[in-house]
Amino acid sequence: MNRGVKFTGVPSMEEIKACPGTPSEERFEKGPVVAIECVQKIPCNPCEAACPFGAIEVGSSITNLPKLDEEKCIGCGICIPKCPGLAIFKIHKNYSEKTSLVEFPFEYLPLPEKGDQVPCGDRFGKYIADGKVLGIKNDKKNDGTTLISVEIPKEYFMEIRTICRGGER
């Protein structure tokens, strides 16, 4: 079976791990950080301008893949709603002993409410596990993109990227 963004529209785990926007395992252990899952060389760079810490570099060719300087990234997440491809996520792997916190862009209605238990899915929207909504950011500065923070079982921090629509489990 062919995998990867060219065949499915969704990056494979191999593509994500090879992406210069993916933090190292060591960086995930240190605290919140963004993961830029941009694997196609397309003309795009709003993430670079959005980062107030200079942690994202696209460079002089606008088709370069964004590169994350994981030591400069503090996991503020300002870049998340600026990505037109919805390809940036904030991950706090060690939110608690058994859970991680994942923040992702969410452009569907209805929005969940803080405290809701929601079905969480992978990049295809396929159910993986339930999560608890801990935060909803719906700021005007995000141009209509809502950011949702969900506490999830730690073993899925590299897989869960959305809430399954329609409550599907």
From TrEMBL:
Domain named 4Fe-4S ferredoxin-type: residues: 30-61, 64-94
Species: Psychrilyobacter piezotolerans
Signal sequence extent: none
Stored Gene3D superfamilies: 3.30.70.20
Protein name: 4Fe-4S ferredoxin
Pfam families registered for this protein in UniProt: Fer4
Keywords linked to the UniProt accession: Iron, Iron-sulfur, Metal-binding
Tagged with keyword Acetylation: no
